[in-house]
Amino acid sequence: MDNQVIVYVDKTYVRITGLQVKGLKPFELEHKLNSMLQRPVRVIGVTGSEIEMDIYGMEAEAIYKDEKGIVKAISTVEGITAADVIKIAQAEKSVEVSVDNFPKDNYSGCARERWLNFGK
Amino acid sequence: MVNKAIIIPTGDEILNGTVIDTNSPAIMAMILERFPHCEVTRVTPLADDENAIIKKIKGAIEQRADIVIIIGGSGGGHRFIPNASKDFTHSAIVRALPNCCYKELYGKNGHMWSKLIAAKVDNSLVINVPGPYVEAVAAAKAALDAISKGITDPQTIVERTSMAVSQQYHLNGEN
After folding, report:
1. Is-contact B87 B74, C-beta < 8 A?
2. Sign of the C-alpha dihedral, residues B132, B133, B134, B137?
3. A79: contact with B, CB 8 A cutoff
4. What is the torsional sign of CA B59, B63, B69, B71?
5. In CATH terms, is domain A11-95 a member of 3.30.70?
6. A120 partner at 20 to 30 Å CA-CA among A11, A71, B65, B163?
């Protein structure tokens, strides 16, 4: 049985700091940024002072370049207020690594082929 | 027939109100659309604590819930982004239900994005869904669609939920 699947997507992990978060509905933030960036956004972690998200199909450099617009959009979402200077503390593109580095299971085939064929 | 369902949201941010739990009401609505007579309970959110999650899962099984849906904490791994949020739910489910079926979705960076699990224990079918809203709804819908057709085999359920979640990931940033 194959319990591991490699999912090919192109996304950048982004961490925003300088916030006070209380009563956030993550899908509202996703919708706001999606409308602004024209890219899918997924909130993946929230604390009282920072938000982590994935932005699909956008390079880290482009995200930093658009920091002002992103911060402005975030500031208008209900449940988020500025506690400090809101900024992008981290934007990191998913880095491709050798399939040899994936956790091993009882699968003997080609992991890359398995990813390409997933869902077909 | 699904007469009793228990929804278990997890995460410190849900428990302390930093994030409003919009997943549980959406999943509850989907359950009621398919099983109008079902008694659905959304329990108090759990902190990111393995032992607390295990205790709650076992309690739900003892209550003979037909479906137990655990929300959030399905990702993690910290292999390439060490300061990303840490998830405990999937490891708690595996500890509580060692004979479960699962499917792990990995990004090409080797980071585990989601581990979808299903297990049948006594009367109860236990499944998990990821925390992000669209993924939670997609996974729950896939599972409930299968259950409403009489499918309760955990391996089939986990195939459906993992496929549904993977379809929410976007290739080349396309909406």
Report:
1. yes
2. positive
3. yes
4. negative
5. yes
6. A11
- Is A10 in contact with B171 (Cβ distance < 8 A)? yes
Structure pTM? 0.85
Helix and strand tally (H, E) in chain B? 6, 6
- Radius of gyration of chain A from its Cα atoms, rounded to whole angstroms: 17
Which among A17, A92, A94 is the top mutation candidate for probing chain B, defined by the most B β-carbons within 10 Å of its own β-carbon? A94
Beta pairing, strands B101-107 & B112-121: antiparallel
- Measured CA to CA, the distance from residue A115 to residue A117 in angstroms comes to 5
- B147 close to B125: Cβ distance less than 8 angstroms: yes
Rounded Cα–Cα distance for residues B73 and B5 (Å): 20
Residue A67 pLDDT more than 80? yes
**How many beta-carbon pairs under 8 angstroms link A with B?**
130
Average pLDDT, chain A: 81
Greater model confidence, A115 or B69: B69
What is the distance between the alpha carbons of residues B139 and B143, in angstroms, rounded to a whole number? 6
Structure tokens at A105: 């299971």
Confidence of residue B89 (pLDDT cuts 50, 70, 90): confident
d(CA A24, CA B19) in angstroms, rounded, equals: 5
Cα B22 to chain centroid distance, Å, stands at 14
CB A63 within 8 A of CB A74: no
Residue B138, helix vs strand vs coil: helix
Question: Are the C-beta atoms of A11 and A94 separated by less than 8 Å?
Answer: yes
Structure confidence by residue, pLDDT tens digits, B31-59 = 999 999 999 999 999 998 889 999 999 99
